[in-house]
Write a structure and sequence with these properties.
Elements (H helix, E strand, L loop, with lengths): L2 E4 L3 H9 L3 E5 L16 E5 L10 E5 L4 E8 L2 E3 L4 E2 L1 E5 L2 E7 H7 L11 E9 L2 E5 L3 H9 L5 E6 L2 E6 L4 H6 L9 E5 L6
Parallel strand pairs: 1-12, 2-13
Antiparallel strand pairs: 3-4, 3-14, 4-5, 5-6, 5-7, 8-9, 9-10, 10-11, 11-14, 12-13
């Protein structure tokens, strides 16, 4: 296995692991998208905050045809952006959803070039009116790439760390027990009217 690691200073790399943005993308979707959107995802989902914060700082709006809108709230300010196509799939008894990495970088203002076809993927579960989303554990993924247990690339810069999993290891990554964060981001189905 080969790992290409760009290092912008040992100190910067250490700081990137402690603070800043962390994200793991796949060179290509490791799964084939389902023909239809998972109907359990359709609706408005409000982020569940840890006390004492308020719920709903982030809202996910998923249409029946799998268009995703992300709305962020800070006080009375509402931030929206370009809508994305959400893809869903199954593997090994788990459900996955992914979006185009280019969209994610534009939407969340990440200044990092991505190849055509690259995606950000999460594992999810819907139980009643609760949506649990587990993203890849980027720190762990970075170590797996550096230790050559997965093929990919790690970029650390500007207090941020980004990992990319190569096509050849996409499915293998999904099957690793240590690939996703143990604690999910939790959302609840919005029953009230939008702000």
């Amino acid at each position: 296995m080969r790992a290409r690691v760009r290092r912008y200073g040992v100190l910067l790399s250490a700081l990137a692991l402690l603070a800043g943005c962390e994200a793991t993308r796949f060179e290509q979707a490791p799964l084939t998208a389902e023909a239809a959107c998972d109907p359990a995802l359709a609706g408005r989902w409000l982020s569940v905050a840890e006390p004492p914060g308020p719920d709903g700082e982030m809202e996910l709006q998923v249409s029946a045809d799998c268009l995703l809108a992300v709305v962020e709230y800070q006080g009375e300010q509402r931030r929206t952006g370009e809508v994305a196509r959400l893809h869903t799939g199954r593997h090994g008894g788990h459900r996955y959803a992914w979006v185009d990495a280019g969209w994610a970088h534009r939407r969340f203002e990440v200044d990092l070039a991505v190849a055509e076809g690259a995606v950000y993927l999460v594992r999810y579960r819907v139980q009643g009116d609760v949506l649990d989303v587990r993203s890849p554990d980027t720190r762990r993924v970075a170590h797996l790439i550096i230790d050559q247990e997965l093929d990919g690339e790690v970029v650390a810069r500007d207090y941020s760390i980004f990992s990319r999993v190569d096509v050849a290891d996409g499915l293998a990554a999904l099957e690793r027990a240590d690939f996703f964060k143990p604690e999910p981001l939790r959302f609840r189905r919005a029953l009230e009217q939008p702000r």
